[in-house]
Design brief:
Elements: E1 3-10, H1 17-31, E2 36-43, H2 54-71, E3 79-82, H3 88-97, H4 102-107, H5 109-117, H6 124-127, H7 129-138, E4 144-145, H8 152-169, E5 177-178, H9 210-218, H10 235-247, H11 249-259, H12 266-292, H13 295-324
Parallel strand pairs: 1-2, 2-3, 4-5
Length: 327
């Protein structure tokens, strides 16, 4: 039987280069592999765990789905849907929360980080984020989740909850594993961490025009351009990593050799990198323009995706309710 894969991206804004190189490219590979059954969602419910604009969310959830389509996610090959259209996610999350302890949720590093970032928004939704994530996965009986290593603590929660339910209620949830895809870590333009929509100045939008893209890349911090050894972390390492991801490892090695000898001119490197990124995004932007011109098609994809996803999720919930004594 095919292995079922689930992945999703929060509806906090249009996809950026980090999403594409770090997640979507891997999703496309899985979609075209006959060994896997792929389900890809826009995680709009997860967006509610941090402060947000209602109007922006209403627009972003559709825009992210359009980005998926423009990037190559095929609704004939994958189940593509909006998380909030499948109410079974929330129902299973409630059932799972009955065996999840508050202490365990509070201990997670991501929860602590978000509380520091949004001290006035320490809500139950934020605390329950990992439980809902577990429900997202388990409601489809998904075995594999293509996410970054930073999500491993959340996957461990999903495995723990699956084990508890299986032991207590004789359910048959799989224990989901992280599925590493190529290029899963895309560094930030700001010089620290990974590219993120929540960090201004750190990302490149897939819809950026060349002028905007040049401005973003040119703003990336650097150093003097010469040294005895190439930095292994920080702004310069991040810039060289982006070169490798977009232009190839040989180009990166050329720049590194120059760095330890004659020195590099960052203005030239950034200009060339910006051009290369823009050219790589051109097919995506052209496809996106075609999709936007046909809103009826997007509406149909959303409707069909919800029906397909709910069919799978409803079967899981019917079994769970019966095992819990609610059926």
């Amino acid at each position: 039987m095919k292995k079922r894969v689930l992945s999703g991206i929060r509806a906090t804004g249009r996809l950026h280069l980090g999403n594409y190189l770090g997640a979507v490219k891997g999703m496309l590979e899985l979609q075209d592999d006959q060994e896997y059954e792929t389900l890809y969602m826009v995680a709009d419910l997860h967006t509610l765990t941090t402060p947000y604009s209602v109007e922006e969310l209403r627009q972003n959830r559709r825009e992210v789905l359009i980005d998926y389509l423009a990037a190559g996610i095929d609704p004939e090959k994958s189940v593509l849907f909006l998380q909030a259209d499948v109410c079974e996610h929330l129902e299973l999350a409630y059932y799972l929360s009955s065996v999840a302890t508050i202490a365990r949720m509070q201990h997670l590093p991501t929860f602590k980080d978000k509380v520091k970032q949004y001290p006035e928004h320490n809500t139950m939704a934020l605390l329950n984020y990992p439980v809902l994530m577990a429900a997202d996965i388990l409601v489809y009986q998904a075995e594999l989740v293509p996410v970054g290593i930073d999500q491993e603590p959340h996957l461990e929660v999903a495995r723990q909850l699956a084990r508890k339910f299986n032991q207590m209620y004789d359910t048959n949830f799989p224990e989901p594993q992280r599925f590493a895809t190529k290029g899963e870590y895309v560094p930030s333009l700001s010089g620290e961490g990974k590219m993120s929509k929540s960090v201004p100045g750190s990302y490149i939008s897939l819809t950026d025009d060349l002028q905007t893209l040049r401005k973003r890349v040119m703003s990336a911090p650097t150093d003097s351009g010469q040294g005895a050894a190439v930095p292994q972390d920080g702004p310069v390492a991040n810039l060289f990593k982006l070169v490798e991801l977009v232009q190839g490892v040989e180009r990166r090695r050329e720049y590194e050799a120059q760095y330890t000898s004659t020195g590099v001119r960052y203005g030239d490197i950034k200009a060339e990198l910006a051009e290369a990124i823009f050219e790589s995004l051109r097919p995506f932007q052209e496809k996106r323009a075609e999709i936007i011109a046909d809103p009826g098609y997007v509406d149909q994809v959303i409707t069909d995706g919800a029906v397909k996803a709910r069919k799978i999720a409803a079967a899981t919930l019917a079994d769970v309710r019966q095992k819990l004594g609610l059926g």
